Amino acid sequence: MRTPLLDVKDLGVEYRSGWRSSPTKAVDDVSLTVGHGEIVGLVGESGSGKSTVGRAILGLTAPARGTIHLGGQDITNRHAADRRDLSTGLQVVFQDPYASLNPACTIGRTLGEPLEVHGKLSAADARTRIEELLTRVGLPADAIDRYPSAFSGGQRQRIAIARAISSDPALVICDEPTSALDVITQARMLDLMSDLSRERGTAMLFIAHNLAVVAAIAQRVVVLYRGRIMETGTTQDVLCRPLHPYTQALIASSPVADPLRQRKRRAARKQADPVAGSEGRAGATPQGCPFAPRCPHATSTCRIQRPAVTLVDGRTVACHLFTADNPTPEGANA
Asked: Can you list the domains of the chain with their CATH numbers?
C-alpha cells in the first residue's frame, strides 16, 4: 500500500491559561491520514479541536506529543527556518477572507511573493503566472493591479486559493474556507476546490463544522469531539449510516427542508441535550468517553473507561457500544 501523504499519529496539543494551571488537552491522541490527491474532511462542533489539528500540522501550534509526517518526512518539530522549505509542499487557506490578505499589497504582490521565494521566476514570467492563476480561479487578469478592498469576500477567498496553489503544493489545509461566505458562493468555492484537486492532484484536509459542505467535497470524514476522534470512514458511510452517537447527534443538528424529517432530527437532537439530568448522562472522568455526559446510551463504563477504537465494516468508531466481539450492537444506528 502506498505511504500516505500526511500521516498524523497520536497527536496531542495542550494549552495553559496560566503557568500554575493544569494543561487543557485541546487535542488528545488524534491519528489520521490523507492520501495523495485525496480530500479528507475533519468535522466537529465549535471547540472540538479541528483548527488546532490544522495549526499543529502547519507548525503554528507546538504539539505536546505525537508525530506528523508529510511526504515521509517528520515535520513535527521543524524550526521556523526549516518551515520555508515545506511551504512548497504544504499551504493553507484560512477561514476569514478579509483578514488573510494584506490590505496594503496589491493582489499581484500577494501572489508574487511565493513565486519569488520558490519559483525563481523573472518579473515578466511571474506576472504571466499570476494572471493564469487569477483566470483559473475565476477572476479577471487585471485584478493583479488592484487591492483587496476592491473585492468581495468570495473573490478574496478565490485569491487566497490562488495563493495556496501557486507553488503547486502536495497538501492544502483548508480551515473553514467557506464558513464566512453565502450559500451560493460556498457552492462555487467547493466546485473550484474540487476541480483544482482533481486537475493538479492536490490533497486537502478540509476542516469544517458543516456536514453538508464536507459531503460535497470530501472522500473520507474524520469526526472530532473535544479533541478525540469519534468515528472515521468514507463520506457515504459516515453521513448516511453514522455509528457513533455523537455523529448521529451532529447529523441531527443539520436542518433539512422536509418538516417531517426535521421533526425527527429535532427529537434525536434532544436526546443528546447536555443539560438533561438523567442517570445515563452523569459527568464523565477525563479517562472516560468525552461524549458520555450527552450520550443517551452512556453507562458507568463510558464515564470511567476510554473506549477502544473498533473496526466496523471498513471504518473505525471509538464507542463502548462497539467491540471486537460485538461490532454491530442492536440499536446502534437508531
From this structure: 6-225 (3.40.50.300), 244-318 (no CATH)
